[in-house]
């Protein structure tokens, strides 16, 4: 809050207790949000010592170990592990190594306070003290987090780089191109990412001054790609993060669009020839363009030509004249076909981006950072921080005396705004002492002071408040929060301008900056209000934008940019967020590590909150949670109304959110952001080129700044067939129809083969099963005979046996059948006469449990929750199903690594084991995080890379990936 010498400004904000900019003293007057005078935030929490030991599950090796670290008792195992291994400074094992969260927070916060005092941000030492304690409280209680470079560098002896996002530039000269290689390499070396636009480089269709043809930007991309791959393999644990942009009117645009498609075909050919082409494989370096995200920058002229089916001119770089005309629809189609085939290129909407540009007099916005959320001037950077939205969800039931169903929740808009003011102040202070990888970036960043405040846990917040992610109510709440965040940020920026001056480039861009502020305010006014949750937030945002217009006119602004929505990968895990950035929840059941070792699968804590908000009674909530724990979804949950199913839709699973639902959520937030949104729109494998075309077109119509899609399994995996069935609408575009179709070969059993015949009873129904196997290679044939049953059931069992037998002979793994058919429920069901399978939910359930026990190695079926009576007894006696080493040969259990299990549903625990609570059950043996748990539960392929550090499957965070186990990311932090 700003207060001048003549009296308080912004008097309309009744009861406001935020910070005040006092012109008389030239400094901010800070007021408390969470803390109490005389009590340090550290003294209000319970601290405990923990041991952090992180292993690579593939070989059991220890990746990291530090014992006796100090953290609050409410921090999760994951958060403790990630902060200890990623952010504590000092050599491991040395006395200088940080060993407490207190040391880490103090290192950062005290540096910020000192810089703030030295640069005149605070009115008095008492205000600086309040700033330090409030910042400490917010970090300690996971209310927000700075981006990773802050935790890496601030307060250390090394250069204090605070930015994670960089934009470079390159001109049409060899000197500039070589500078690009060097600057990009230095940024990669520091663990950050960079983006740039190559459109200034002459095309291969233009002449050099010497008379020869230019190489073109695609050619120079090869060198930069090789550099990025080399720096990654030289020591970093993740691939270099980079973005390459080319304007749609560049004469080499078609070659740019097709670069990755051709390389993907090459990868498949080499993979089929026996080379290791997996991500991180030994031979993947033989292909090009794999270290960058590619995006085409389209303008309104091109999009209108696409709408009209008109021609579009490609222009010479040096003269601007049209040297070739192309069909806009055909070019747009090629972009969609390429994205269908390999997920690149993404799309950026140039005119929309520059329509919201606050500093156009200083240059156009031509590119973005690798994750596409930071968009500003060339040779600039942005430091990020993200707020945990769930920390501002308030349960008003107790305060208003209500009880039972229909919990009264609200979003604490007033406290949220105060925390935004605190964080923006700290972020701006950091630019005063920050180091930068190049002098050009340092000059631009200090002159424009770009900030990127954002949030995480939106998906969890929407579900907890009873909003479907893809709903008008969900979008209204997301838009309101985003508007309040950005409005409050610019209000604080105007207050800071009164204290320490506007940004250096403001005077030249004042009219444009104020115009963009009016655009934000107008969008806020026009936004639709939906319910009792979003309406008060919109009201607070409206007041904030009114203050922005008034104070900006008086003082100018301290920052050219204020907000973005970043991936929040590692810091999201640090804050114990259920969802990252603007993403929905991954699934309803999560993987949770336990203090002292072990893990559990638990139903999301947001589910009970959502059910309470929707009006369900406690006993109904309990029943629904139990159903989710067993099935992983809400379909047919007892007592749950079908119209409420959508509230629990997730990114993956039985009820996955539609691709357009993701696009609409981005459109709800975009008008209230300075920058853009890091998000990839996931599409099913069955998605068509036409659907991708529609997504890219609708992104432009809805006012997005950038958009990327990912079609499941479009990267190297199963070979693509030459033709797809028309009825499935998955026709491959012409560019990928050259791929050879591979067919499995049937391996028949010999005339004489070993077999096992088993008699069984399930719920009173008797039957016989004969299972014949190859002499040296597992099960190959099953015969089923039901005693005293009608001809229809007997005939169906015969047909079923033949189908399974043929599948086995064509190479379908037995574990795939087991994962699909165990837990299938139908009559007859109940008690059996088999001591190893005491209860069966159907005859099919029994058959495949018996086959698993007879033919699958111990490790594979144990991961599916299938154990013999002897193994279950061992578990009760020793706490482990595993046999002793000297028992392995006796029991005939596989000592080698198990075959890779196919997608499997989470099996129920064996009947002899103790029943678990509905909301928590032991996680399957081979699940190491929520992504792998989801794959086992729902038979899905998450289609994500494995973590280079610990070997577990990563999960998507914005347009990057993050490892839940160790916090590593596949892109910029």
Automatic annotation (TrEMBL):
EC number(s) per UniProt?
1.17.4.1
List the keywords (alphabetical): Cobalamin, Cobalt, Disulfide bond, DNA synthesis, Nucleotide-binding, Oxidoreductase
| Essential cofactor(s) | adenosylcob(III)alamin
Record's compositionally biased regions (Low complexity): 900-927
Q: Which Gene3D superfamilies match?
A: 3.20.70.20
Say what the protein does. Answer: Catalyzes the reduction of ribonucleotides to deoxyribonucleotides. May function to provide a pool of deoxyribonucleotide precursors for DNA repair during oxygen limitation and/or for immediate growth after restoration of oxygen.
Q: What is this protein called?
A: Vitamin B12-dependent ribonucleotide reductase
Per the UniProt record, the source organism is Streptantibioticus cattleyicolor (strain ATCC 35852 / DSM 46488 / JCM 4925 / NBRC 14057 / NRRL 8057) (Streptomyces cattleya)
